[in-house]
Write the structure tokens for this entry.
Amino acid sequence: MEQAGPSRHGRLGCVQGKRRNLFLRSRGRPLSWAEKSGLLALALAGLLFFPAPLCAAIPLALFVAACCLAPMFPGWGFFYPVISRGPRKNRQISLSFDDGPDPVSTPLLLALLRKYEYPATFFVAGRRARRYPELIAAILKDGHELGNHSYSHENCIMFRSPARLVREIALTQRVLARHGVKAVFFRPPVGVNVPAYAEALHVTGLTVVNFSCRARDMGNRRLQGLARRIVTRIRPGDLVLLHDVAPQITLKCSSGDRAALDLWSAELEHIFAALKQRRLKVVPLTELCQCSGMRPFADARAKASVIQGSDPPSA
């Protein structure tokens, strides 16, 4: 992260000082669609309360229903702005890989991407990025982009406080800063959007990027038919979600280990070949969504401003 101004440091301190407040709101953060809808629901309920008390509950119930449904739709920017796809008019798509880096899968994945000359965005977990710095260096060397996917990648991290979420994002930014880059995209673990992220994103200055096409591979636990699920669903403008983790079957330490990895590789190669056959151009995420992404630090001082402080806990 580049050197932050005093206002951002102030917001960070405010969040860290009030860890228990899940509904904390920093000064200057724009109202989200959820907040606007909530205010509108309250206003309508107030207007309806005296002439029709029972009807007053309707706008409030609709608002609660929207809040409950929003996390189920990764591309819905109800709680904060979300990028999940590009325009359909161009025959372009973008590839993204979550949860890495991994010493088993990442080298194989990078080799396949080099073979097809495809760019990709790797949304990395900070703990794994810190454990395997050589893999982060290899990703950058091949010209790919990096995104922030939290530090610990807890499956239930969405229930944590804004202060905890700020720390998760900041720790990963610190790990990536050691490689001289600042990630500006954040993908929530499991792709679930919840209100608590709004404050963390405002404090850290990151933008949420989710996806519009996925294989539901359960983190490379469901390999059979992976390519078919992507190829039959993909459309121009899609942002594809896949995973950069070793197939879970490989943990059995048997003769089936290599077969599982080979199956995953074959499924990826099927996807990559199908994209060429359908004349879908694979472009960087920043080009697909027409936005600025990962960038190097302006100077050593900006880099040091992120790296300084307590190191992340040992993995």
